[in-house]
Amino acid sequence: MTLPIEENELSEEFIEEVLLCSRYNELDELEEMLKNFDFTKNFLQLKSKSNNSTPLHFAAANGNNSILNFFLKHLSINHLKIAGDNLETSDYGNTPLHFASLNGNLESLKILLQFGFDPKVKNNLGKTCSTLAEQQGHHDCVNLILKHWDDEDEDEKNLDIRNEEELEKQRNLLV
């Protein structure tokens, strides 16, 4: 499938295909579809029409770490802050961390936390990702989140990735 952009707007069909690939761990197809994709201009258009979830939400929810790694390698520091903060969440205020926690995807949680996603963000019901994990009995996820939470410097608001140089170091760890 070629990149169907008309005046910098992605087609609904293309967006849906990217989201499906993210959900079902179709990395080869996703890489082919996005080989000429301008992440800076177009990433924020990749949202589900029904609930505003991004490919990061779908990958985290389903434990598709190769998809998470793919997107994290291509996103800028600003995109990561938007995707991880409450600015760019699903319709219910859930971040990719909420989705990973709810489903007990420990490795996805580790990846997202390493890239600076904030575990203190509350969804529209006032629940953090650790609350969701605890409610589902995912104690390993709760322990990881709380360990990361305790290690944070309050003044720095959980931004493990503060600049492009640190982001590049994290990306190199994915290889």
How would you characterize the overall build of this protein?
The protein is an all-alpha fold and 175 residues long. The protein has a single domain (5-174), classed as Serine Threonine Protein Phosphatase 5, Tetratricopeptide repeat. The chain is built from 11 helices and 2 strands; from the N terminus they run ββααααααααααα. It has helices at residues 12-24, 27-33, 39-42, 55-61, 65-74, 77-84, 96-102, 106-114, 129-135, 139-151, 164-174; strands at residues 5-6, 9-10. Strands 1-2 form a two-stranded antiparallel ribbon. Strand 1 and strand 2 form a beta hairpin. The radius of gyration is 15 Å and the shape is globular. The relative contact order is 0.12.
Task: Write the SSE topology.
Blueprint: E1 5-6, E2 9-10, H1 12-24, H2 27-33, H3 39-42, H4 55-61, H5 65-74, H6 77-84, H7 96-102, H8 106-114, H9 129-135, H10 139-151, H11 164-174
Antiparallel strand pairs: 1-2
Helix pairs in contact: 1-4, 4-5, 4-7, 7-8, 7-9, 8-10, 9-10
Pfam families: Ank_2
Protein name: Ankyrin repeat protein
ANK repeats: 51-74, 92-124
Shape: globular
The residue fraction in helices comes out at 40-55%
If classified by CATH, what would the architecture be? Answer: Alpha Horseshoe
Mean pLDDT: 83
The run of helices and strands is EEHHHHHHHHHHH
How many domains in all?
1
- Main β-sheet, spatial strand arrangement: 1-2
**Number of β-strand runs:** 2
Instruction: Assign the CATH superfamily.
Output: Ankyrin repeat-containing domain
> What is the terminal-to-terminal distance?
26 Å
What is the CATH C-level name? Mainly Alpha
As a percent range, the share of strand residues is under 5%
Largest sheet features: 2 strands, antiparallel
Which residue ranges are poorly predicted, with pLDDT under 50 across at least 5 consecutive positions?
Answer: 1-7, 152-162
What does the radius of gyration come to? 15 Å
Helix tally equals: 11
CATH topology: Serine Threonine Protein Phosphatase 5, Tetratricopeptide repeat
